Amino acid sequence: MSESVRIDLWLWSVRQTKTRSLATSECKAGHVRINGNVAKPSSPVKIGDEVRYRFQGFDRVLQVSALITKRTSATQAQLCYIDKSPHRPKVYVPLFTRERGTGRPTKKERRELDRIRRRDSNYGHIG
């Protein structure tokens, strides 16, 4: 086994991206870092390296524990890295629910819905 693997191939192999071309695109866009340095798709990754990349607006931090070049099962892929990502914050979205079959909302309920949805209830009115 070689001592290093291309970062785009490794990200795809450990199932962090759906396709290798997506991993390449992420590297080219500057969303992937190896030990704090921006990584090109051909950058080598070694055991012990820290890989950071943006995923859905949050940073994923992975420490490389094994090198693989073939995409394997999810359980085998998880053995190839140690996930050191900070926990994502829980987002609380207040929901306004009404009982089914209660008819049209009252003016008060409509204003409450607009407030929750952050809409201006006076939109379209002159005055």
UniProtKB/TrEMBL annotation:
Q: InterPro entries in the record, alphabetically? A: HSP15, S4_RNA-bd, S4_RNA-bd_sf
User: For the RNA-binding S4 domain, which residue ranges apply?
Assistant: 5-69
| Keyword DNA-binding carried by entry | yes
Cited SUPFAM superfamilies? Alpha-L RNA-binding motif
Task: Give one Pfam family.
Answer: S4
Report the SMART domains cross-referenced here. Answer: S4
Q: Record's family? A: Belongs to the HSP15 family.
List compositional bias (Basic and acidic residues) regions by residue number: 109-127
The keyword RNA-binding is assigned to this record: yes
- Which stretches of sequence are listed as region Disordered? 97-127
Protein name per UniProt: RNA-binding S4 domain-containing protein
- What keywords does the record list, in alphabetical order? DNA-binding, RNA-binding
